[in-house]
Every structure is written in C-alpha cells, then in structure tokens.
Amino acid sequence: MPEYSKKINVILPLLYTYDFGAPVWRLRPDTTADRLGVEVRDADLLLTDFYTLCAEQHVLHKLPLSATKNWWLGLEDAHDGLLFLHGYGDRQIGEHKGIFAYDAAGGKLVWEQPELAYYGINSDGVLALDLKQKNLLQLQSDTGTITMQNVSLESGAAAVANYSNTRFQNCITPMLYLEGETYFAEVADFLEQQLQLQAVRGIEYAETDTCIVISFYISTPDGKLDNVLSVFDLSGELQLNTRIALGISGIGSDTFIIFNKKLYFIQDRNILTVYSLL
Q1: In CATH, what number is assigned to the domain containing residue 119?
Q2: Do both 145 and 178 map to the same domain?
Q3: Number of folded domains in the chain?
Q4: For residue 256, what are the β-bridge partners?
Q5: How many other C-beta atoms lie within 10 A of the C-beta of residue 200?
Q6: What is the pTM for the complete model shown?
Q7: Structure-model confidence comparison of residues 94 and 118, the more confident one
Q8: What phi, psi does 224 have (nearest 5°)?
Q9: What residues pair up with 139 in beta bridges, in sequence order?
Q10: Which end of the chain is more exposed for a tag (fewer CB within 10 A), N or C?
Q11: Position 185 in a domain
C-alpha cells in the first residue's frame, strides 16, 4: 500500500461518517440553520434521495419522498431551514423548472412554484426566473408568495452576489488551480517537499486561521488518477492525509468544503466524512 495512505488522522478529530450506499451528487450548506443538504443519486437504479444533516448534533434526516419518483428532481439550495429542490423542463438539455421547498427538519413540503425556476437567495427571500418572460420574481422564502415582479436580471444577479458575502461568511470553498498556472506550481512544490508526491492536472486549495486544506491528484501506474486530501497546520505539519477517490479518469471541483470550522468531503463517492478543524 502506498505510504501516503498510512498517514491518516494524525491530530484532527473525526466527528462523523455516513455511508449512503450510492454516490453523493451534491452538498449545499444552510449557513442560517447550521445544516447541510445532501443529494444522493444511483444512476444504475435511477434512484435519488435527499437528506439534511444537522451539523451541530451530527443527526441525519432523510426526506420522506419516494426515491423512484425523485430521479427528475435535484437539490438546488439550502437556506433558513428549507431544502429547495428543482424539477426539469426540457430534460434533454437539463433545464431546471419548478421550485419545491421542503422543511429540512420535518421533511414536509412547505410550498411550491412548479412553473418557475430557482435563481438565488437575496436578503429579501428567493429570486425565481419566469421561464416565459425571462425576468425575475421575488418570492417570500417561507411561503413562496410572490412579493415583487419584473425584477431585472442585472439587479437580481447583483442582489444574490451581495447577499452571498454575508450568507457564506462561515463557509469556505476551495480555489481550483490548474496545471500550468503559477499557483498550481507553488502548491505542487509544497506538496512534493512535504509528502514526496507529485501533483498533476489540478489542485484545490483553501486556508483557515488554523490550517491549510489541499485536494490534489497523483498519477497511478495504469494511467488513472487518485484524489488525495491533505490538511496541514500553518507551520506545514501534516494533520490529515487520505485518499478520497481511487482510479478516476479526470479531475473534479469542490471536492471539499469548510463550514463553521468543520471539514466536509466525500470519500469513495458514497461516504460523507466530517472532521473538526481545531
């Protein structure tokens, strides 16, 4: 077994793991309710399930929906104790249509707008796209009631971006550096010095006030890639080093997130893993 796979959990406490038994497709943090929305999809069986994780208590709830009917639904966002799911209009091109807001704790459908498409969250609620008129509507987030019509795309985009600065202030997503870029070379040199491993193709990098988190890829003898996730303290000492995907053909993005000083990532496609970043 490669040496790097043995250096696991040196200092960081493991808080939680959950094996969904099928690939985790999407994670969405609810920063207002300290929850995490999870979408799990089994492409072989055409089954989809949706979950919410209470991040403080590490309690997982599954939405009580029929998985056989959920294949044409997807997780759009999570906010203020709600999971927002979308349907599809044109399934061939993947056009999102429909907004279905579920209570994350109880799993009940709170409201729906089947003819609108989710656009984003701003300080006043949910912005939705009128697919026919191609303009935005403002919705009250807890009821789905339309409170404003004819919102321009320009002002809507600005409102969502501005609110995101506040909404995600406790959530860090990594920066992606591609091979050939200056920052890729700098981080790859650091990894080679610390781990004696040569990163290829792409690197995801994030910093907190206590640590550095890096997700990177190494080549395997059969021409595939292994995805490795490493955590260092600010002095460069290794805290965690583990392979999160083996024998893959290409690189991904958003392979981890940091939310309220906890590190979330998917291991072996199916397992949600949470570490505390001290």
Answers
A1: 2.40.10.480
A2: no
A3: 2
A4: 265
A5: 15
A6: 0.91
A7: 118
A8: -95, -170
A9: 126, 146
A10: N
A11: yes
